[in-house]
Records
---
Amino acid sequence: DTGVSQDPRHKITKRGQNVTFRCDPISEHNRLYWYRQTLGQGPEFLTYFQNEAQLEKSRLLSDRFSAERPKGSFSTLEIQRTEQGDSAMYLCASSPRRQAQETQYFGPGTRLLVL
Amino acid sequence: GQQLNQSPQSMFIQEGEDVSMNCTSSSIFNTWLWYKQDPGEGPVLLIALYKAGELTSNGRLTAQFGITRKDSFLNISASIPSDVGIYFCAGPNFTFNKFYFGSGTKLNVKP
């Protein structure tokens, strides 16, 4: 089993540009989560997919953020008109189908720097 | 949303010492997860707890699910330099549609 993978690992962009990140979950994990993490803080939940359905969104996810998981496998997170405050590590995690004992596995993250 | 409070915020210990850290919540959880994160990497799952009072070990790591279901503890015995990192506790909401994380305990180990 390969782990969760994310691409790119690092992204530097200028304010106002759009960026898109990709997450490939562990195969056959039908649940996928996006988080944002800033320095010195724990991950903060952004959004959740079960298969291709986006079932939960945080208030942190402004209208400049959009996430998709079109075929229930990989997911993309797009940030439009980036702002300096968007600079953070964006983490993706996946979980297998609901079971009595929950787990969640993270990818290596995409570190975004907005200049 | 839920707030998870971790303490201490940071620790400086000597190699070989035992370490204890905890995580508390204002609300009950049905699952507690403990992660370790190295700089520039994603969190790695260390231990998962599913039952109040449960004590689970993973090598030199031992974690406990508090009986009130509002806290959890992580102990590391005989620390080594590679234990350096930030340790996070996490717990899901009732529907498991989101997980809440503490702000972490930063562990420094002096050789």
Note: Chain B has no helices and eleven strands.
---
Amino acid sequence: NAGVTQTPKFQVLKTGQSMTLQCAQDMNHNSMYWYRQDPGMGLRLIYYSASEGTTDKGEVPNGYNVSRLNKREFSLRLESAAPSQTSVYFCASSEGGQLYEQYFGPGTRLTVT
Amino acid sequence: RKEVEQDPGPFNVPEGATVAFNCTYSNSASQSFFWYRQDCRKEPKLLMSVYSSGNEDGRFTAQLNRASQYISLLIRDSKLSDSATYLCVVNRGGNQFYFGTGTSLTVIP
């Protein structure tokens, strides 16, 4: 039981390049989330998927797209990376709704030069 | 105004000490509250949920004050292994969670 897995662990991009961050969970959770964590800012929600087939914007969605591929997988795409997107990205999953614990993946450290 | 505000610390305390963290939230409609723990360069993990009546888990006690819109975390008999950043998390309903910037704790031998 791996929990939440993320790939890659580290990535360096040049401005304007694109990439997709992958996330998968094996806990049969309904909801999945993408956050970014920056110094002094805390974790901020980028997008979430309350259930398979749905996605919604969070606090900071600009410059990102997501796909809920199936119940297990939720990917985050940067179409044209910018230095402001340098951050640590965490994927999380939960049973869904406000009461349930979120389980986080190990994170992806992304640097955009 | 930020949804959730925490004193970033750092808090440096000796082993065995009692330490308390507070967190304030701006939206009175907030409905659920949590404390997460994050070790250096690791992912956050749930420490405890915070219930209206307050709750305790071993050496950890969480309290909610809805009138003043703050939650607190008390750690008794601090251990070296308690050194981490503690994140306050608030939910207004649905799937949108708001995280504080975290309070750093170092327990000194």
Note: DSSP finds no helices and eleven strands in chain A.
